[in-house]
Amino acid sequence: MALSKRLECILQEISCVTLADIGSDHGLIPVSALEEGRCQKAIATDISASSEKNVLQLAGARGVLDRIEFRRGDGLAPLSLGEAQVIVITGMGGLLIESIVKNHLDLALKSRLVLSPQRDQPILRKSLGEMGFAIKKERLVFEGEKPYNIFVCEADKEKEYTELELLFGRRLLEEKNPELLRLLETKLNKDKLLLQRLKASGKDDRSRNRIGEVESSIAQEEGAIRWLSKPNG
Ligand SMILES: C[S@@+](CC[C@H](N)C(=O)[O-])C[C@H]1O[C@@H](n2cnc3c(N)ncnc32)[C@H](O)[C@@H]1O
Questions:
Q1: Are strands 18-22 and 86-92 parallel, antiparallel or unpaired?
Q2: 133 and 26, same structural domain?
Q3: Segment 18-33 mean pLDDT
């Protein structure tokens, strides 16, 4: 089945007997995982009633209905301990993903998590470390100009993150990820233009605060770009 780059990238991280896809919506992830033999059985969950119809319709059309189960419910509540070796939670905000994991932490710690937060990535990175997960792998994929982060996490100790690692991803920085460099160069150019405009227009307290924030983003972006541009060794 033809998938977006984001979904394709998520799919590549699935390899297990039983997959759970939390907030499955359209069902593309579990159905494709079954079709490609990335799992033998899939549990799709969602709080929304319309998702059940979507998932079962797609599974029927693709001939995998006998290996998929839909369970309606909030977060990880529809799962039992150890049932799924891989749990996917993607296409939601970082704070929602954080609360879904935190609310059933014992269960989450038993599985490999594939997470894709649409925003608040730094908060989720920090919180995962505090909850006892290490981000073993991080991927950055673009659909047009829009970046998507994908974290692959397992229960393990993670040493404390630096500010830059929380902001931009330890694994991406370690591997000097070229996509991250491209993203940061684009962000830096935008922030420099914004700073010029703010300095030219605003003289009140609010503008001064905003100028401070943009200057600090620029310093962080420049720090990460310096690191990413430095040759290894
Ligand atoms: C934008 S869709 C993402 C679909 C798919 N996971 C993806 O990455 O393309 C978000 C889905 O999460 C579901 N959702 C939101 N909060 C949820 C929760 N607490 N538990 C389960 N599903 C939830 C929504 O109903 C919606 O179908």
A1: parallel
A2: yes
A3: 98
